[in-house]
Write a structure and sequence with these properties.
Length: 620
Amino acid sequence: MNFTRWSARFPGTQRRAAARSEHAAAQAKRGEGSVPAARGAAGHSTAGPDGCPADPTVRGTGSTPGTGSAPAAADGTGTPAPSLDELSVRDVLDRLPALVALVHGPEHRVAYVNDAYTAGFGARAPGAPAHLALPELGDLGLLPLLDQVQRSGKPRTAKNRTAPGGTSSYTVTCTPIEFPKTKADAVGSTAHAHANAGSGTGSATGSGTGSGIENEPEAHTGTGVLIHLADVTDHAEAVERLRASERRQREAAVTLQRSLLPQELEQPDDLRVAATYQPGGTEAAVGGDWYDVITLGAGRTALVIGDVMGRGVRAAAVMGQLRTAVRAYARLDLPPHEVLQLLDGLAAEIDASQIATCVYAVHDPNEGLLAYASAGHLPILVRDEDGTVRRAADPTGPPLGTGGWLHTSGTIALGPGSTAVLYTDGLVERRGEDIDEGVAALERALSGAQGPPAVICDRLMRALGVDADHDDDVAVMVLQQPARTGADAELFHNAALELLGGIEAAPRARAFAQGVLASWRFPVELCDLGVLAASELVANSLQHGTPPMRLRLRRTDRRLIIEVTDGDDHLPRRRRAEPADETGRGISIVATIASAWGSRRTPGGGKAVWCEFALPDKAP
């Protein structure tokens, strides 16, 4: 800051004043002098030397002998603008509402504080070091800043510094200044120069020889720092209120997001499944990542993961609606591509401005396959038991909500000892990097990941650098097909019978079921119920279905599954039979005695009808 433009007491001001005097004298010689108009005469005219009124176009001025007419100001009022050189620095700083302090020297001794500073922090004694006289600067962390400003000669600004107690906040600007030499300094410097000159010649005569006048050193100019504290308490409080509001909104979105995700994953008999969700950091809004595990029956399991584009409560709400719809469509036991086809239309109805990616997969333990369909989502990764990582290669369709696309299903093998990973883009996408590089990094991390699914989830998150400050939310699901051996393998068995011939296949089916269930050492009551259910399902298939037909019995550690397949795609339904009806009771009997039953269309055509019986807590 240049103080010479504010006060006539600082060097340079006298030179400009002398220049103006010389310029005014030159104008007077040419008859171009002027007299400023009197403020009080601005409203009436004055008389000229001949007694006539002065020119009415000149307001508040008149011609006088020996002078020219006074020039009007630029605003037309006839009042010239005051010169800033006539203002006093102290008067200006005292009137400022901001807090101002002036320090000088290496110890930052107090030279001045204005009235606002005194009102804010109390009176301060000049001459004392800042760390003693201005302790509030230390509390605001400004003392190191003063050193930096004085060393660099460049102004510095510190924003939103909170005073002790948290009652006030300030934005502080520290500006370097140079103090001009005082008259005493100049005299002392000249006297010192004369003394040095006299000592060099052996006399202090006024002859001018060696007087030191011409070689007088320039006076030392002191440095200081002007400290300007602007009270931004209202602004800081408004910012804090805004941040608090954003935190509340984010917490509400996170709460909504987590409440819409499954609180506890269903655990299928043949798979081990774990999933994790990590919201974005505090600066990132909550997104619409989601996942779910749905038991379909007959040992089959649906696994789904998706990502709603967008952030905040709206994205979480759309995610919740899509997740609910997926569970409803999954109960229809449709192929994966048909489920996505239904979701595509629903997503457009929910919010046409938002789209979502999704992958829907179905695991069938009888086939050892993972059938899936993808709507713009990242590929599924599968690590075999030997550590080889495979990527689902079938093409994906566009995201949900775009419409006009026929989705297709693909399959990938998931044998014993295999691990599959479903994930959202937040796990592999990084700014400035191709997303394929992130997927490749995930493949490398998966190839060396060992342990149960929950441990693998954590290791993949750490390997990809996902932490609490991650800039996007992440959802990861890991599923394993265990390689069972020993006693554990004895709890999982399969048996199948091809139903050849006509009606005579029914007694063969009953005998087959009786022998298999007995060999599995089920209780007698469960064996009888299983044989009855198998007989009814086979009879229904023989009467309404077409070849080829098959009876499949399967046991796990928790249930007995009976399934009959045939070549007809007409799905049975439960109906109430009238007393006189001779047929129509088979499905009702199965639904009554079994824990669950259902039917679905098979990929190659035809259908499968199944039922389940829960095993006792301690099977023999």
